[in-house]
Task: structure prediction
Amino acid sequence: MSLFPLRRQQRHAESHVDGPLIPPRPGTTRGGLVAVTNDTAMRHSAVWACLQLRAGLISSFPLDVFRKVGDLQVEVPKPPVLVEPGGREWDYVDWMAASQVDMDRAGNTIGLITEKNALGLPSRIDLQVIGACSVIQRRGEPVPRYRIDGKEYTRDKVWHERQYVIAGLPVGLSPIAYAAWTLSEGLSIQRFVLDWFGGGGVPKARLKNKEKRVPPREAALIKERWQATVANGDLFVHGSDWEYNMLQAEQMGMEWLEGRRFALSDVSRFFQCPADLIDAAISAPGSITYQSALQRNLQFLIMQLEPAVSRREKNLSKLLPRPRFVKLNTDALLRMDPETRAKVMGERIKWRILTPSEARAKDNLPPLTSEQEAEFVRLFGPPKATPLPAARDAGWPWEQVSPLSVAPYQQHPDLSEVDR
Result:
């Protein structure tokens, strides 16, 4: 699935977008740069950190399934395909993490639909190695075909999610393909440093006699004595006529650190991850500071992660019969300190957004018992009943709701027993 540059092969009146996701290249490129593929790119620490951060967060968000009943959003049980999408070996968390890594590094994730339910919807999706997948767009066909390990499949047998799309392409763009120059530079720095300190073509040090010219035979003998002594960590004893210098070692170390620092922040931009969240050094003037981790996480969620979350919700909702849909609960990323959390819970209960029983369930506490409610009444007095116009207008069998009441939608007459 060659994405950049796009190669269109015309053969027998067919137009192909074919080949590996990133075309295979020899071990080195022109100028001695290291070739970049999906696998070699993950040797770069910034690439690994960005992919694991995004995939780890998105796969850890609790998944909920809802159904629209009038103006209400009612939670319903999750079908098996959203519990173990890839069978017993691939539960929801692993499946979501693996597919998100492919989408973030390659722009696409592809799986084979191996089982379907009675409604004809996928009930099992086996993810495939992205490098073994090709997308073929034939002229005159509205939907593409897929080739996986040399075998061709129609669209109804393949699960395909994509991101970073542009008009006219049936596949998403690959960040690694576009970041190849930056990644190749960073990987080449690593290789050069390893070659340097591991015995490259440039001498690592110089042993100089300041008093006389040393003939070749004597120089070879002195070199052997020096290597034998240094290799064992022993002391090398000499007079005042020898001088030992490390050639450019300090300068090379500084250049290596500087190159690495710029590569980390550059790669972070390609993968939509702030550099500070992957522990990359930030030294630019005017860097943004945050008063709390909550504010930082909120900014990351809104600016970088929310588009990916929305795409996944839309795609996973296709596995359900309408009008059911999927939502990923991103509250896990916005965990508050205990004091702030208590205030927010109190306000939500006050404004009838949350019931006390639901708030207690979030702290893994059971609903209030009659004895506990009586104790609250003794301490703080009876709760003041407040009219609820929405309930009255809907014709529900109550006119007033107290703070200790259960959620009114649980007894809505339009809900079936299954949806309750």
About this structure: DSSP finds twelve helices and 15 strands in the chain. The first strand starts at residue 9 and ends at 11.
